Amino acid sequence: MPLRMGRRLISVRPVECAGSSKYRSRRSRRALRIEPSASIGKRLFDIAVASAALLFLAPLLVAVAVAIKVTSPGPVLFVQYRYGYRNRSFKIYKFRTMRTNACDARGVKQTVRGDSRVTPVGKILRKTSLDEIPQLINVIKGDMSLVGPRPHVPGMLAADLPYEDLVPYYFQRHTARPGITGLAQVSGCRGSTIEPNRAISRIDYDLDYIEKWSLRMDIMIIARTIRREFLSGSGF
What's the per-residue H, E or C state across 153-222? Predict the structure, then answer.
């Protein structure tokens, strides 16, 4: 209560209770059946697209791995624990973009523009979002989906507060598998969470995605991600 009263920007979006008749009347039976975590179609789509993408991108992945190994001492992949479906932790895979002795294993310190920890090759990978490609392995394993709320590290800060303190309904985003990309990312909510309003908006976009999900929506988000991240190079 003191935190809620002391911070004017704290989010107060109502929490939907699955077992409440009040909310059940607002959602059709069809909407309840097609939640992303319960959709067999979404899971099959994820496996098919992720497998095809890994085969198609295999030569590029080998070239990136060689470039990382030659230009910077340390492992090719960066492995970190993140929040997954229903708050279960899992190991996420990314191409290593930072110097080994400067990596933040906990992920609490966020990357900023011009971050001195990033290697020259890492700058290119982050700019084009190619560092995220190994997460296709996470998708095939079932830890992640192609589209969903981006997985956060436990203890992630937003506006210098633990995310769950700033956004009381934060953990609702974990009712779906985390995604390589998501509605928040293609809607401009990517990057730093220092600004409270942007941090809150990111969670609201995640919950909007879960409530309105469809395969058509997934395909639209993937197309926008390819155009925005891989082709335009908006990462850092």
Answer: CCCCEECCEEHHHHCCCHHHHHHCCCEEECHHHHCCCCCCCCCHHHHHHHHHHHHHHHHHCCHHHHHHHH
How confident is residue 192, by pLDDT bands cut at 50, 70 and 90?
A: confident
Using alpha carbons only, give the angle 145, 149, 152 rounded to the nearest 5 degrees. Answer: 105
* 227 close to 181: Cβ distance less than 8 angstroms: no
| CB-based contacts of 24, cutoff 8 Å, min separation 6 | none
Looking at residue 111, the DSSP 8-state letter turns out to be -
pLDDT tens-place string over residues 7-30: 444 455 654 444 433 334 444 444
Separation CA 98–CA 118 (nearest Å): 4
pLDDT in tens, 160-189: 899 999 999 999 999 999 999 999 999 988
Question: Of the ranges 52-66, 93-107, 180-194, which one carries the lowest mean pLDDT score?
Answer: 93-107
* Residue 105, number of CB atoms within 10 A of its CB: 10
DSSP 224-236: HHIIIIIIT----
Helix, strand and coil in the chain, % to nearest 5: 50, 10, 35
Task: Please answer whether residues 177 and 85 qualify as being in contact, where contact means their C-beta atoms are separated by less than 8 angstroms.
Answer: yes
